[in-house]
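Reopening this ticket.

The earlier resolution said the output was attached, but the attachment link was broken on my side. Pasting everything inline this time so it's all in one place.
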Amino acid sequence: MRTVLLYTYFNGFEQYLHSFKSMAHLFDEVVFFFQRISNTGNENKNIAEELHQLRGVHLLEYKTDLSLTTKENEREKHAHMIEYAKKLGATHFVLSAVDHVYSAEHLQVALNADVDVTFTKMYTYYKNENWRLDPIEDYYMPFVHKLYDKTTIVERHDYPVLVDPSVRVNTMDNYKIFDIDECALHHYSMVRKDIMNKFKNSASRGNWSDEKLQVFIDEYDNAKVGDSITYFKGRKIVER
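Inline output:
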């Protein structure tokens, strides 16, 4: 067995450092697949300084194609990442944003499942690492994938649970859906030093008016335990 962790990155470097410290030692190889230009056309002006800090990873750049939609770019990027995992001789891989954290115990549980794809629910953290949203979100995150020569990202609609359309693979003959107490993603997507940068470069940015975006920002800036969060369909902030 040879495991590879595939990070996709545009912003949120502080979260990458947290995730890397938590998970890198659990994998045989770590790949850091970065973009200088986001899928919405914005530049990461700090990228040179950030890349200089990286150690112990395979460093690859995805050239954003602004003629594609945000989700098309994500699918293309993830497909390139999977091809690189094949070159590294991987038998299993995990596609991860830099704000994802899994435990060593849960990684082993997923590997032991011995299926093509495993799926987890997630705890979503908001503004600080001690606040998370309740109830948990409706969608799942694909976790450990078994890697075949033909594995790639495809556009398909027959997944057994709701997942992001940019992470669906063609090799999913068998799968395991975990209960959250069996295996869980800790998702720090909303714990950011610069929340505006997060929102401006989100794949969903085109769905929001400027007025709605300002609501998201105001709620984040003024958040406290017990608040209902519009961005998360009224889920409430609770202490973890």
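Reporter confirms the inline version is readable. The CA atoms of residues 98 and 109 lie 21 Å apart. The mean pLDDT is 95.
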